[in-house]
């Protein structure tokens, strides 16, 4: 039995779905009604990381765990790792981030992920870290602006990033969860090419067959927008991450998807074509109408 956490997120949902297609899977979910993975082989345990009794129920009889955490303040990795150790789990696969292995990355989020990885290491449970680059699905945040005005607003339009399809990250995680010999290893995961926000906008324009315009945000405007959604340390971390991207720190391509799954990573043009509906304009709301 494999336990999947974070199964309502971009990667966890795909991991749960890929595992469920091949056999039984258990999901720990704070809000089970939000799950999209269903079926006779899917067992759901309602609970959250801070509820040790729920964790113990979810981990009973489990051989491997896929761990996704996102709180910037709660010690969720420590909680799950400690409970997994007590339950005799044989393999804990943690979704981390590629920046943790980069000396120049010292923002709040990266520091927290390094601490989280260390907590998993110290638990005594055999571990593997899956460290993806930026998700292609992050561009879904552009959808409201594209639908309403045909404009994309973002920082640093010419800064390249080897962004990755979350489905490819999930496929790597599934290969690690179901394979052998991955314990004690960390896998960086990127897409097949470095692409800029301006180039992504042009790709979406071709997919949607309508003109789109990219407008670069200034740092102050970006900070204001981020502070409306996130606490100050998280907002500043995103800004620092954007500066690193502008300096070229996120452009490197690695072959992990090909190496672990036997097929190449999907480029942004494929992801965008398969998610075009999310960006499609509402009836009567085409730019210029």
UniProtKB/TrEMBL annotation:
Q: Where is the NAD(P)-binding domain?
A: 6-178
Q: Which SUPFAM superfamilies match?
A: NAD(P)-binding Rossmann-fold domains (SSF51735)
Pfam family, any one: NAD_binding_10
What superkingdom does the record give?
A: Bacteria
Matching entries from PANTHER family are given as: PRESTALK A DIFFERENTIATION PROTEIN A, PTHR43162
Name of the protein this chain belongs to: NAD(P)H-binding protein
């Amino acid at each position: 039995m494999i336990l999947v956490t974070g199964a309502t997120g971009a990667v966890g949902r795909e991991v749960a779905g890929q595992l469920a297609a091949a056999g039984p899977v258990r999901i720990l979910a704070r809000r089970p009604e939000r799950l999209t993975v269903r079926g006779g082989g899917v067992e759901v345990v309602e609970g959250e990381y801070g509820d040790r009794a729920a964790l113990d129920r979810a981990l009973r009889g489990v051989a491997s765990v896929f761990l996704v955490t996102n709180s910037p303040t709660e010690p969720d990795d420590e909680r799950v790792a400690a409970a997994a150790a007590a339950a005799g789990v044989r393999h804990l696969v943690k979704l981390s981030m590629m920046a943790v292995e980069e000396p120049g990355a010292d923002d709040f989020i990266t520091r927290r992920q390094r601490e989280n990885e260390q907590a998993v290491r110290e638990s005594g449970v055999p571990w593997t870290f899956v460290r993806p680059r930026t998700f292609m699905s992050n561009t879904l945040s552009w959808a409201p602006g594209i639908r309403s005005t045909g404009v994309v607003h973002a920082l640093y339009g010419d800064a390249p990033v080897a962004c990755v399809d979350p489905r490819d990250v999930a496929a790597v995680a599934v290969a690690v969860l179901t394979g052998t010999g991955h314990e004690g290893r960390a896998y960086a995961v990127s897409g097949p090419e470095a692409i800029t926000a301006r180039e992504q906008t042009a790709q979406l324009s071709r997919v949607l067959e309508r003109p789109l315009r990219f407008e670069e945000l200034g740092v102050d405007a970006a900070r204001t927008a981020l502070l409306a959604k996130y606490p100050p340390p998280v907002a500043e971390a995103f800004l620092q991450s954007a500066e690193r991207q502008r300096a070229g720190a996120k452009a490197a391509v690695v072959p992990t998807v090909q190496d672990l799954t036997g097929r190449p990573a999907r480029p942004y043009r494929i992801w965008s074509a398969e998610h075009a509906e999310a960006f499609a304009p509402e009836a009567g709301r085409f730019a210029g109408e």
